[in-house]
């Protein structure tokens, strides 16, 4: 099934889904229905509210500036207390993804690198040329890792890029670039992009922000992009195709070669989203694991995104967006020549940016080196395979696809609710990723999980969680009911309402 959405107008092939959504919105306007819905929302939010404001009872809440500045040491002590309350969970490997290295020596090193450059700003390259050196070298090192030398010769194969604030910005930048390239080079004014429905949500955001029609194609039975389906979804206004290496939900690499060949034939862009795998897959391939072609060595791949702040082990807040040519990248740049404030130009969406993050990223890549990344990848993939085999051995669960280190699993037993298993794992201190379509859960293995005993603890706890859920069906709380709702067509409007309420709660005191 292909669903198509646009900023100004939504068009969904599944008309039944649209009808139910419309009816739900009308029903909310009926007073007694609205009151019933509000009561149900309140029940669901009650469990979640405590997660958003866990310190409300024990620490003061500041709604206005203190009359006199507080003692700096007292402020730092309060912050250390928060850190102490939160750090053990990720340090002990209870979290999927989120913190990818976490070793005290490494994080201390990054802190020092950031501190040296805490006052720098890449926007002012004339004041801080050291930061522009770091960023140019980050891009070059990442490009080299992702097949730049095998891309071919000539200016059309001169792989280049920029440093962004994270994977979402890298994806947004690439999609904005394709929109502007297609308008300038092909005269396309009603652009669309074709993606597998497992592509990152940042592509949905890009479509809405930049008024690009989004054509989502349901993945095949193997949870990988359906190339034939994506081909059918293309037309003369298609500006790019998208594939993931791997996709966030199931940890599987899309058929990038086939998608790139299709893109090349149609003379459109092809973006490989390697935000999650860009700093793992090249090393896994070198270690002998079966990694399908996905980078600039594949003719037709015209851009990529790779997160340095994930498996690149940099501090949070950096990513790299790459292009096959400088001519394509030029459509990313932003310049203003007639502003009274002077000539203005910036490479990404932000103006001022924290140079300390780029410095820490460069420092991390320098400190890791090839051997460091190879060793880290070896440990991560070995642990991922151990966890995968362990999940396969648990009665009632099934692993989706053939993942290397991002392991997604679903219920293989009628009546066993995977979201209640997720909730039971949460009560055992685990923070895992709940997914849907199909309902499943995943663990993104990091260096935290390679510590002795962590994989075994995860599997033991998961086995107990499955047994508990089987013996106590319907007991799920917290996010479990919301994930359950999200998997049903009539509840999509309700889920959106709840998520908006959650975001409200994040900023409400």
UniProtKB/TrEMBL annotation:
It is a single-pass membrane protein. The keyword Transmembrane applies. GO terms for biological process: carboxylic acid metabolic process; sphingolipid catabolic process. The keyword Cytoplasm does not apply. Keywords: Endoplasmic reticulum, Lipid metabolism, Lyase, Membrane, Pyridoxal phosphate, Sphingolipid metabolism, Transmembrane, Transmembrane helix. Its cofactor is pyridoxal 5'-phosphate. Pfam families: Pyridoxal_deC. It is found in: Endoplasmic reticulum membrane. Pathway: Sphingolipid metabolism; Lipid metabolism; sphingolipid metabolism. GO terms for cellular component: membrane. The modification N6-(pyridoxal phosphate)lysine is found at residue 310. Gene3D superfamilies: 6.10.140.2150, Aspartate Aminotransferase, domain 1, Type I PLP-dependent aspartate aminotransferase-like (Major domain). GO terms for molecular function: pyridoxal phosphate binding; sphinganine-1-phosphate aldolase activity. Belongs to the group II decarboxylase family. Sphingosine-1-phosphate lyase subfamily. PANTHER family: PTHR42735, SPHINGOSINE-1-PHOSPHATE LYASE 1. This is Putative sphingosine-1-phosphate lyase.
